[in-house]
Amino acid sequence: MPASTSIEDSENVSPHERTDHGGGPLKITLISLHGLVRGHDMELGRDADTGGQVKYVVELARELASHPNVRDVELLTRQVIDPKVHDDYAAVEEVIGENAKIIRIPFGPKRYLKKEALWPYIEMFIDQTLVHFRRTGVPSLIHGHYADAGLAGAHLARLLHVPYIFTGHSLGRVKQQRLLLGKSTAESLEKRYKLTTRIEAEEIALETASMVVTSTSQEIQQQYELYDHYQPDRMEVIPPGVDLSLFSPPAGLCDDVSNDGVSNDGAGETAFARPAIADAVDRFLADTSKPSILTMARPDERKNLEKLVEVYGESPQLQEAANLIMIMGTRDDLCELPKGGQQVITNVLYLIDKYDLYGKVAYPKTHAPDEVPDLYRWVASKRGVFINPALTEPFGLTLLEAGATGLPIVATHDGGPRDIIANCNNGLLVDPLDNQQIEHGLLRALTEPDQWKEWSDAGIRGTREHYSWTQHANRYLRDAGDILSHSAVPALVNSPRERRLPEFDRIIITDLDNTLTGDDDALREFHDLLNANENIGFGISTGRRLDVAMDLIERLNLPRPDLIETDAGTQLHYGPQLTADLSWRKQIGYAWEPTKVRSILDPMPGVNLQEDRSQSEFKVAYQIDPEVSPSQLEIKKALREAGVRAKVVLSLGMFLDIIPVRGGSDLSVRHVLWKWGFSPENVLVAGDSGNDIGMLLGRTLGVVVANHGKEMEVLRDRPRVYFSENSHARGILEGIEYYQFLGNIVIPNDRIEPQSIESA
């Protein structure tokens, strides 16, 4: 079972009795951000982002929602308004089953974007989702899918203090490792795939998750172990299911099979119609009576489709035994595909021509999702074989679908296929780079009738025994119940109250040192501005300790702030009496181990503990010598490998703060907005150093003063982040004018789309 990750235990409740925070049935939020997600006619294979994950999350949502202990399931994804895609993806809500629905959250540009272009907008999704949760209530648990949703879900879970589940689907470190074996350089991979950002997102998701759902044991042992925050005790192998009502064998194929709904009299079989795509396939083929080798994958270099054509082209025996059918997504015009997809299909066509395979290979341009089950049955009825030759395959839903219809499989020996064939014994594993192994596996299935029958029957049995969605949901909810039974009720579970802070409708929150200070004339002007506009609240965000910060504020003769966030985003106080935020205080110490932090960092060269006045209950402060000390990434790695869950914040290249995972200006500012019902568009935040980065992202109105540290350059070209030409308080005043913050607020930089993101 996943390890408990709560800072305090609730009452001792059975996992099967414990449901949501209020004792009722669960509300589960799944998040899957990229690609095109809808509940019908899924456009699987349309591009590299619309594949098996889309089908997985939709079917998971439906199955979980059918469970009696689940009140409802929502699948959050991105709203897309784009004439190049269907209007379905613009609908805010789509019902996909009883108690299950897709909710589309608008963030970033309206048009469809590939996943690598979504990173600058993740914080906007977080803020928009908080608005959604304000209307609908805090979920019992959050489950992020893939790195982008993994990062967003982790931040939401940290902020709202609800349990978090993560599924990576495919992992950046694995992709990086595999692609570096080819012709790609690290620089070209980074430009194209943003792997540094992706891998750090995965690390944060793993650090936050109470449970990581994997499809296979190999994922845990050989893929997740590549990560600094590798915690195998939190990882559970729960294989995805296959819809057995759709993927059943053709009538007459399994008369002698009896297992879980497939009986001797043919129960569980399907009398199928010849699929419409069969006509599209036959027009490519000279001899349509032959069995077929079927592969189904989007045109992606990792799917290794060119290798399959090469093997077939170099084997007269395979060409004699079977035709080759390649379902490579859908396309109306090859030139409209992403460059990677264009290249793969161009390479396939070149190889067909090179080996003169005309009349032997079919590669139809389109297919409808509802044709796929009958396509498998049609190939199975002609004693064909299904192959997945991918270089790496995290799981392989197509292998389950093929197996469930009685089609033997030949599959890559990497990833999910290993577990599938171990459980079902319905085919062979092959090295995807070994031509002879691939050829041998296909020929065995095509030329040995008894072996074909044995594998076919075994696949029908095995998928029903090991890979039903019901079984998946039961195990998932068992483990989720265990996590919830050991989790404290979140401090923010109740709906946020309407605004109860003093009488103002907007607020300025600024860093203190070198942002607000440093220009006495501009500071006086800023002071006068606050005094002249009673509707504007004043907040301070600082790395200083509370008492030290208040001493400076009084020396500067500043108004006492309406809110003050101190100690690098770990303490929150309000109003003239500096009233502590108790709900923030209740959860900030989650997983905090300052003694362990010091035992790891104190011995490091060039890492020097700061004076006592810089230390606090939830902050360990160091000053580093960059010439001698490990890098920020190396420090993170050391803490993660030791199992320490903490944030590492570097400011001005020398000041290093280690704080709890639920601390930081990003979470503290969002906590304030959530708790008091403030709109981010009415909040202007200003800073100059790494401590401030978190609060400057998202839907707040960000201002970076000109005297900023070089670490702030990562924010340049981010939406809603304005870089002032002036320094210190003069830069804040410039930002106030830029956003017209005193009047009718405008946001000129709301839709920044840097060329480097879009063209990568």
TrEMBL record:
Keyword terms, alphabetized: Glycosyltransferase, Transferase
Location of the region described as Disordered in the Swiss-Prot/TrEMBL record: 1-25
Database matches in Gene3D superfamilies: 3.90.1070.10, Glycogen Phosphorylase B, HAD superfamily/HAD-like
Domain Sucrose phosphatase-like: 505-740
Domain Sucrose synthase first GT-B, first and last residues per copy: 27-230
UniProt enzyme class: transferase
Domain Glycosyl transferase family residue range list: 286-459
InterPro entries reported in the protein's UniProt record: Glyco_trans_1, HAD-like_sf, HAD-SF_hydro_IIB, HAD_sf, SPP-like_dom, SPS, Sucrose_P_synth_Pase-like_dom, Sucrose_synth_GT-B1
PANTHER family linked: SUCROSE-PHOSPHATE SYNTHASE 3-RELATED (PTHR46039)
Protein name: sucrose-phosphate synthase
Lineage, opening ranks: Bacteria, Pseudomonadati, Planctomycetota, Planctomycetia, Pirellulales
